[in-house]
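Hey,

Quick one before I head out. I ran the complex with heme C overnight. Inputs first:
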Amino acid sequence: MIAALIGAAIITGLGVAYFNYELPRLRTAEQIALGRSVYMANCAQCHGAQLEGQPD
Ligand code: HEC
């Protein structure tokens, strides 16, 4: 029982630590620029260069 609680606390701690480490790295300027080029190449012909979508 105690061991399970300690195990759960460790796993929760690792999860929190992981997200604190990972979240700030999710959207760097480099990734945003990459997203723009992917969008321009694959999506803009239908959704528009300014993300405007289509009428109706
Ligand atoms: C061939 C034209 C076309 C291309 C290319 C295209 N889309 Fe779409 N997209 C559509 C259409 C049409 C809809 C609406 C579909 C529906 O609602 O049934 C849609 C819907 C969407 C939606 C849902 C929007 C909403 O309000 O529900 C998203 C998100 C989306 N597209 C993202 C993308 C992304 C990201 C790309 C590029 C990787 C892309 N689309 C490429 C035509 C396209």
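The pocket of heme C is lined by residues 42-43, 45-47 (CB under 6 Å).

Talk tomorrow,
K.
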